[in-house]
Amino acid sequence: MKKITNNVGLGKLAMLLDAVIAVCIIISVVLLIRFDKVNVQYQNTKPMYDAYVKDSLRLEQVIGDCQKKIDNAEEQKVILTAKIDSMKAEYKAIEKDRKVEKKVKDDLQNAIKFDEDQYNSFVAAITEDSTMQVCAGDTLKMNCVANADMIGKYTQLEQDSKGPRKAYNVVIMIAILLFIGKVVLFALWSFKNMKNVHAVSPWMEKSTKPMWAILGWCIPVYNLMKPCSVFSELWDETKYILKSKEIVADDEDENQMEFIGLWWGLHLFAKCILPLVVGGLMVCFNYWFLPIACTDFLNMGVFFGIKGFFLNLNHTFVAILVILAWLLYMGYEIYMINSYNKMNKMLVDNESKL
Question: How far apart are alpha carbons 94 and 90 in whole angstroms?
Fold first, then answer.
């Protein structure tokens, strides 16, 4: 007695997850467009705001540097004042003393003059730095007043963009987790169906092992090819069994193999290529990127975020492309699973012939 398992239930559950993922994608793209309407204005205002911030930081640096120079000059003034007072007191004490040589008195007087000149240079530097500091402060205030509207607009746009972006990230994360769950379910469904084929086909002993229906999804890069080849082989062998046992007509549906290639092409475009174009958290549909996700990584990127060329393509076109690609992929996968479920049911119903 052959051990053929009925895997239709797993297939239907995978189809249900595909439908839910498709709904999540539509919701997420709607949120993305809401975010984008604000973000386009935000990004257009950003260069002016960045220039203002850069200029403000430069002026604050000037004010800070002037203050350091003034503080240092004031400190030197205190030291020189004490030194000059000390030398003047010493000179006064020896000025009329005939025992002290004239050269000593002259040297002391020259030292007092030198220190007084230094003191005056520090006073002049303080005046100059104070003037520069006041000018920089006035310029900073004027810039703030002149750019008040732009600063207010930028701050408001930044705030307004956060809500839709957070909502988008939440929905996309839900879609990613559902997608990973669907991949696990699809892999298990394929594994069980591959075991059915191995159970009734002795020649499959040296063919693809059922475990590759699961492992093929887990190995980066290799998973860009292996799941398709496993499912293609599963489909082909199942068709062959059904025809060889005269369960279906020999001329029935010879073009289904081409549909598998189309299904996998849609999979690669929707899951691997398109997220890299859109950027942001959507990239994590390539789920091996999840472990390296970080704050910068999760920022919207490329067309919907902070990158320099984010405006170079019409965003509505990209959003429509995302929705259509995912709807085609999900819809076609539902069709493929449903088609194979019918073959699985035929195997179960005709187990006695196998």
Answer: 7
